Amino acid sequence: MATSDRTWRPGTRAAHAGRANDPCVAAPLIEPLYQSTVFRFESVAQIDAVYAGQAPGHVYYRMGTPNTSALEACVADLEGGEAAVAAASGMGAISSLLLALAEQGDHLVADRHVYGGTFSLLSVDLARLGIAVSLVDVDDLAEVEAAIRSNTRALLLETLTNPTLRVGDLPELCRLGRARGIPVVVDNTFTTPCLVRPLEFGADLVCHSLAKYLGGHSGGMGGIVVGKKGLIDAVRAKIVHFGASLGPFDAWMVGQGLPTLALRMRAHCENALTVARFLEQQPAVSRVLYPGLTSHPRHDLAARLFSGGFGGMVSFSLKGGRSSAERFLEALDLIAFAPSLADVTTTISYPIATSHRGLPESALAAMDVDEGLLRLSVGIEHVDDIIADLSAAL
Ligand code: PLP
Fold first, then answer.
1. Which of 172, 154, 164 has its CA nearest to residue 190?
2. One of 115, 213, 290, 350 is an active-site residue; which one?
């Protein structure tokens, strides 16, 4: 019955405004936003069926929403995985998945070149929970193998490391994980399933920060984990218990970016290669890190692993260290100094002051993050405008 047909008093009518659940007269072209923290049920039998997965539907925001489910289905499909679970952020996804795999007394092996936030989680927070971590160089398979113990529960790496853009031998690392019975977890944030699908090489779980290329427009936050249903259910349980769930609006925002992912990645990759080649010629630049350059130590491996390009991230060091980096950032005009990445516009970050801020000197040295290192996220603008801005600032 419509609210207007009821005999309710004004206060009751106001409280129920907008809750009529009127059916749409036609299907919307794009996914609607279901910004409701809870769903209503006609009976206990109906809610039982939804909880048991025997009927479609959602119960409560923290446990999943139509928008998060739609996003999970899309990203699982893109990565070629059985199932996916979204989280409030990339870190929400990574911490939940690691706590699903390991408990007190267990051990993890991880690449020491991973994103600073992941590095801190591994080296500070997990240690406090009694989970030991060996930080290794995944380029060195012997070092990885030697680090594995009887209680090792996961091997964690990034397809392209943030910010030094190193490339691990994914097939070999997955083979090693398989042989030793250790789940291999791959952060595919920098490459996306358009360039590489780690599950095809035998990885067990793939994760992303959704705020990066999958969303692509710096509007929606989130994280996601993809893999076999059993493992994803275990990660989902942690996300729900810790309250690290993704809200519908952010899921919807990220979902608006996905249709253009392949087009954007093509443009990011093309522009980044041109920019990397330009930077390599600049006298003020001491090194350029980009897997598409033949000077990159793992260029051949990257060419085998990645299809359609080498990603949109280019890191480079300025000869003058911190003072040069600071002056350079202030001199840029088109390119924003903004400590995230993968936006459609070109942005730049300064790792020692942002993503790797506060890490001990020894960790920065081990990660090869120096005071002159800048991390450029090359956008999809006309490449001549990007180069003109870099050139003027240099
Ligand atoms: N993984 C990588 C490779 C990242 O670059 C980031 C953030 O920059 C994260 C994970 C963490 O994601 P979020 O910021 O969404 O928590």
1. 164
2. 115
Confidence of residue 18 (pLDDT cuts 50, 70, 90): confident
> Would you state the pLDDT for residue 26?
80
* 180-192 pLDDT tens trace: 999 999 999 999 9
Q: Is the CB of 218 under 6 A from ligand 1?
A: no
Q: d(Cα 368, Cα 164) in Å, to the nearest integer?
A: 7
Regarding the beta carbon of 339 and ligand 1, being less than 6 Å apart is answered: no
Length of the chain: 394
The predicted pLDDT at position 243 comes to 97
State how far the Cα of 151 lies from the Cα of 148, in Å rounded to an integer. 8
Does 91 sit in the ligand 1 pocket, CB within 6 Å?
yes
- Ligand 1 test: best mutation among 157, 195, 212, most atoms within 8 Å of CB? 212
Strands 132-136 and 107-111: parallel
Q: In the chain, pLDDT over 70 holds for what percent of residues?
A: 98
- Rounded to two decimals, what is the model's pTM? 0.96
CB atoms within 10 A of CB 338: 15
Question: Is there a catalytic annotation at residue 34?
Answer: no
Helix or strand run (H / E) with residue 294: none
Instruction: Sheet containing 205-209: give its strands across.
Output: 83-87, 223-227, 205-209, 184-187, 152-158, 107-111, 132-136
Q: Are 107 and 149 in contact (CB under 8 A)?
A: yes
Of the two residues 17 and 139, the one the predictor is more confident about is 139
> Is there a catalytic annotation at residue 212?
yes
Look up residue 272 and give its two tokens: 């980044």
Confidence band, pLDDT 50/70/90 cuts, at residue 330: very high
pLDDT for 228: 98
Q: Report pLDDT for 1.
A: 65
Closest CA to 253 of 383, 86, 378: 86
Q: Are 130 and 178 in contact (CB under 8 A)?
A: no
In degrees and rounded to multiples of 5, residue 134 shows phi and psi of: -100, 120
80: left (phi over 0), alpha (psi -120 to 50) or beta: left
Q: How many CA atoms lie within 13 A of 182 on its CB side?
A: 28
